[in-house]
Design goal:
The complex is a heterodimer. Chain A has a single domain, classed as Orthogonal Bundle (Ribonucleotide Reductase, subunit A). Helix content of chain A is 46%, strand content 7%. Chain A has helices spanning 20-40, 108-128, 139-166, 168-180, 202-224, 229-266, 280-296, 304-312, 354-379, 414-424, 428-437; strands at residues 49-54, 65-70, 332-339, 342-349, 404-405, 411-412, 468-469. Chain A is globular. Chain B has 23 helices and 22 strands. In chain B, helix 1 (55-70) packs parallel to helix 3 (102-125), helix 3 packs antiparallel against helix 13 and helix 6 runs antiparallel to helix 21. The longest helix of chain B has 24 residues, at 102-125. Classes of the chains: A mainly alpha, B alpha/beta. The A-B interface holds A 93, 109-110, 113, 177, 180-181, 186-189, 191, 304, 307-308, 310-312, 328-329, 349-352 and B 156-159, 168, 199-201, 219-222, 553-558.
């Protein structure tokens, strides 16, 4: 196992001190990063001590070290999962060749594009979430928010390490630009559309960490398969952190569902909104919205880029080792497409369908989370099921973006869509109501009206632990 | 799916019918906005995603360029932009190229090249300044379109880039002038151009500006302001006098198209597919050609010169695209040679915006004639009117045969327009090209031709006429072979039979080499160097073989190259 140099200015397990050039480059980037954090990092948190997890090693015991930290002093570092000895490329045209420790020139630009696109989402989400501390429903949630934020920051470091370490001047310029773009800024927007809308309420935050961060998880899983070994190792370690974000999202929604059930049982004849809870129909609408825009992040169903990435050995499938055919040159994948108002099965060469194949894994994984929510509903004795809408619903990217579909995936004409979409997606009134709930509760052990406390706290502590010293 | 290139194509359109462009006029500024309809390609089998273009899209662009010059002379700035979000233009549609026949691909590229050259001609000669306002991805043919403009403005949003990804992505060249304009027009350093042309994702923002790939960058909120500033700066330049509204409308030509013939008002084409040849005949003007600038403007689109060259233009395009196996075109003229010369002189003397615009179009169409990959034999026979403008067809042909009939010899005459008003792509006129070894002879002929338009008091009208019979025309470099009535018919028949028996590929190469001796310009480099290499690459396994880059683009496999270099 590689040891983490914790005393270095930039904690790392990549033996940074022996690579002076890279060390200097990253040390030059550090103050830029810090000033970016100061400018658009989480509000209300600069001088507060937060009970945060810091990775001190990459093995099972080391990556979850808890202590109070002021966020600007957080030990962001560069941590790669341990190298797999003699690792071979697991798929594509280079299947079976030794994994690359340096970037092959022919794939340099392709890799840079992938890394920059992935990297850009990390600071973007910090920016999107920066105002949420104002309306935290509890200290526990505020801490979780901050934990998510610092880890997104660390993920940015991980990607910037790759840019600085392997892409020369271009990489350094890209690293600078990662700090120059701003979520929602018309002049310097973040690369992906979904990362340019602010997340201004906690319902959206939980949905984002449930659905959008899960896209991140699957992107990282597919990049963890990469033939470019440093990228693979970086992503493998990031995945351990990403799991927490999904935990925040999945349990956050589950706690909202639980709270609503409690109110419904206590006041069976009343609208839960009258008692400060969020009615299940509205939660369903938020699910519909966030799930559908997160599906877009996987890209087009039929994609030559995806085929190229797979062929080049840069981006594989989820758990490639479980696949039998790692070349994916034979065989097709059936993608239903809308033709003259009817869905028709169209066969797509397997490699061109890689986005859709990854999306399949993502859909299944979400369903497991939704099942947990429905288990809560059943346990509480409420007759309601939260459902994931069909993947064709409300899409802006890909082959379904040109037409409208209902949540079951049936094609709709534009007029029907226009008249019904408020039933399926949060409307103005729903958003107003959610906004009206967003009031800050920061007394240890207290919680807002619309969400239940967690079953247990962080690192064996209780819910009323002082997670943030305000 | 039928391979692209099998269907008859109409080159006529009108802004009212544009499917892919929007043309809006506001005082002196026109906005030409690209909004390609994905589901309306010219042929089936591909979608025009991301403002990618096919011939249908480019026919509309070519129409807009021409109409702006004739119908809207008052327009001094044209802003070309995109209605699509985050993309200006992704270039020629790859699927379309991949499914096209070789001949169609070559002719498609030639046509798009000619359209871009027409943009530059409008800028150079018609006082119309073209600004490309690129608000997103400007890739491949999209950047080549931008390169044809006078100025390129690129949005600085951290992701929009200009690029020429053909080499790294498709294994072919940016063949619509991209490579040439980069170093010959924009004078980008060639080492940087080398880097730029191998980075598939292109170059954005500050570096694009620094390397001279674009002329201005601005963030989204400041971009329209930058465009307006550049428009204002262009409008502050002195305007060409007399270019005022209204212009001259260009109505549809609407030829009568039969299976083996196309008939226009002045031009007819008779196609002999079995003989792999066609006969193109142009009738000269009647004697009622208008005399003054005002009358010429009044004649408008009915003016003989304008109408005849538009017809010739359309006929050439139809021959190129629809008659690939017609390898030889026999060029004939009919009418009164004196009337052509008088019409030329009236047009030349008018010196109005309209007369100049007509001359520019005559020159442009003659260049299209020079660049058509078919053999041209001019047949100068009794009753023909190879004079002035129409002599250019004989001078531009690969050979000219004249029937030297002592009783009824055709008269070949020059007008002042032959003295340099109708330059070829390399800047020389066709008389100069005939006398490269004896430039003094070309100068003498040109001087005489120029003099011929001066009024009678400078010399007698008869003395001023530059007139040849077949034999002296051979001497003057206009006629290749003057044959008497006994030999002529056989001479021509043998020449035709021999010509259509030769390898069409070799002939295309031979003609392209022999037609343009002398100087080189950016234009000749595009047609002679860039297109020639492109057409070679288009045939090579590394592009179009089973695992060629163009073949597998968008397919699951990556290309596999044969590594030997020639």
């Amino acid at each position: 196992m590689s040891s983490v140099d914790l005393n270095a200015r930039i904690p790392n397990n990549v033996d940074l001190k022996t690579d002076k050039k890279l060390q200097r480059a990253l040390e030059k980037w550090l103050p830029c990063y810090q000033s970016w954090w100061g400018e658009v990092g989480p509000e209300l948190a600069a001088d507060k001590e937060v009970y945060l997890r810091t990775a001190v090693a990459v093995d099972k015991d080391g990556w979850a070290h808890f202590d109070y930290v002021k966020m600007p002093e957080y030990r962001w570092g560069i941590l790669l999962a341990d190298a797999v000895p003699d690792r071979k490329i697991g798929f594509g045209d280079h299947y079976g060749e030794p994994a690359w420790q340096e970037i092959p020139g022919e794939y340099r630009n392709m890799l840079r594009r992938i890394i920059v696109t992935q990297a850009d989402t990390e600071p973007a989400s910090v920016e999107q979430q920066r105002l949420l501390a104002r309306t935290a429903p509890s200290l526990y949630d505020m801490r979780n928010l901050f934990q998510v934020n610092v880890e997104e920051g660390r993920h940015l470091w991980a990607m910037v390490y790759l840019l600085h370490g392997y892409f020369g001047r271009d990489g350094r310029e890209e690293a600078e630009e990662l700090l120059e773009r701003r979520s929602g800024n018309a002049d310097k927007p973040r690369i992906l559309g979904a990362f340019n809308a602010p997340i201004s309420d906690w319902v959206s935050f939980f949905m984002f960490t449930m659905f959008t961060d899960r896209d991140g998880k699957y992107q990282l899983l597919s990049l963890a398969e990469s033939g470019f070994d440093p990228l693979s190792r970086t992503c493998r370690f990031m995945l351990t952190e990403e799991a927490h974000h999904m935990f925040v999202g999945e349990t956050g929604v589950r706690r909202m569902v639980k709270r609503t059930c409690e109110v419904m049982k206590e006041f069976p004849d009343a609208d839960p909104r009258e008692h400060g809870a969020i009615d299940l129909a509205t939660l369903q609408k938020y699910v519909n919205f966030w799930y559908s825009i997160s599906l877009d992040l996987f890209g087009g169903e039929v994609s030559s880029n995806a085929a190229d990435y797979f062929a080049s050995g840069i981006k594989g499938r989820y758990r490639e080792e479980r696949q039998e055919d790692h070349l994916a040159l034979e065989g097709c994948y059936v993608v239903p497409q809308l033709r003259d108002g009817k869905m028709v099965d169209v066969e797509v060469p397997l490699r061109n369908a890689m986005n859709e194949i990854l999306r399949d894994s993502y859909v299944d994984d979400n369903q497991r989370g939704v099942d947990q929510w429905n288990k809560t509903l059943t346990q509480e004795g409420i007759d309601f099921k939260i459902e994931l809408p069909h993947r064709r619903f409300n899409r802006q990217i890909g082959i379904y973006s040109d037409a409208e579909f209902d949540p079951k995936g049936n094609p709709l004409d534009a007029a029907t869509w226009a008249s019904r979409k408020d039933e399926w997606l949060p409307n103005e009134k729903d958003r107003e109501y959610i906004d009206s709930l967003m009031k800050r509760v920061v007394e240890p052990g207290k919680i807002a009206s619309w969400i239940a406390p967690p079953i247990r706290g962080i690192n064996g502590n209780d819910f009323d632990f002082e997670y943030v010293r305000l | 799916m039928s391979p692209v290139g099998d269907r008859p194509i109409s080159f006529e359109t009108h802004p009212d019918r544009y499917r892919h462009w929007k043309l809006e006029l506001d005082d002196y500024v026109a906005r030409l906005t690209m909004d390609v309809r994905e589901n309306e390609p010219l042929d089936e089998g591909y979608e025009l995603k991301l403002n990618s273009y096919d011939l249908g899209v480019d026919i509309e662009l070519a129409d807009a360029v021409r109409r702006l010059r004739f119908e809207h002379p008052e327009i001094r700035v044209i802003v070309i932009s995109s209605a699509k979000d985050r993309v200006f233009c992704a270039g020629a549609n790859i699927k379309m190229l991949g499914s096209s026949t070789h001949g169609f691909k070559v002719n498609f590229c030639k046509f798009t090249n000619e359209t871009r050259l027409a943009i530059e001609d409008a800028s150079r000669s018609s006082g119309q300044h073209w600004i490309c306002a690129a608000t997103g991805t400007t890739a491949g043919g999209g950047y080549e379109l931008a390169l044809a403009c006078d100025e390129i403005l690129l949005i600085d949003d951290g992701s929009s880039a200009v690029s020429l990804p053909e080499v790294p992505l498709l294994g072919v060249l940016p063949g619509t002038g991209g490579l040439t304009r980069l170093v010959d027009k924009r004078l980008v350093r060639r080492d940087r151009a080398d880097v730029f042309c191998t980075v598939a994702e292109g170059i954005k923002g500050k570096r694009a500006l620094q390397w001279g790939l674009v002329d201005g960058i601005a963030t989204k909120s400041k971009f329209e302001g930058l465009v307006k500033d550049r428009c204002d700066a262009a409008l502050a330049q002195p305007a060409i006098e007399g270019r005022v509204d209204p212009g001259v409308a260009l109505p549809a030509l609407e030829p009568t198209v039969e299976d083996d013939s196309i008939a226009y008002r002045h031009v007819t084409v008779a196609i002999d597919r079995a003989g792999r040849k066609a006969t193109l005949t142009i009738a000269g003007p009647d004697d009622d050609y208008p005399k003054t600038a005002d009358e010429i403007l009044e004649a408008g689109s009915d003016l003989w010169h304008l109408r005849a060259v538009r017809e010739l233009d359309d006929a050439l395009l139809r021959l190129r695209f629809s008659e690939p196996e017609v390898g030889l075109v026999l060029v004939k003229t009919t009418g009164d040679p004196g009337a052509v010369v008088r019409a030329d002189h009236a047009l030349h003397a008018a010196n109005s915006w309209f007369s100049r615009e007509v001359l520019l179009l005559v020159a442009e169409v003659l260049r299209r004639y020079d660049c058509t990959a078919k053999s041209f034999f001019a047949l100068i026979e009794p009753g023909s009117a190879f004079a002035g403008t129409l002599v250019e067809l004989a001078l531009g042909a690969d050979r000219a045969y004249a029937l030297d009939d002592p009783d009824d010899a055709p008269s070949i005459r020059l007008s002042s327009l032959n003295a340099g008003a109708l330059p070829m792509t390399h800047g020389l006129n066709r008389i100069q090209v005939r006398h490269l070894k004896h430039p003094e002879k070309a100068a003498e002929l040109a001087a005489a031709a120029a003099m011929s338009r001066l009024p009678g008091d400078m010399g007698t009208s008869a003395a001023a006429e530059v007139q040849f019979d077949p034999e002296s025309a051979e001497e003057a470099g206009i006629v290749t072979i003057a044959a008497d009535e006994i030999d002529y018919e056989d001479e021509v028949r043998l020449a035709i039979e021999e010509r259509v028996s030769l390898s069409p590929d070799a002939l295309t190469g031979m003609e392209a080499n022999l037609r343009f001796p002398g100087a080189e310009t950016m234009e000749t480099k595009i047609f002679g160097r860039l297109s020639a290499w492109q057409n070679w690459i288009f045939q090579r396994p590394n592009a179009v073989g089973e695992r060629g880059a163009l073949t597998v683009y968008g397919e699951p496999q990556r290309p596999s190259f044969q590594w030997s270099r020639t």
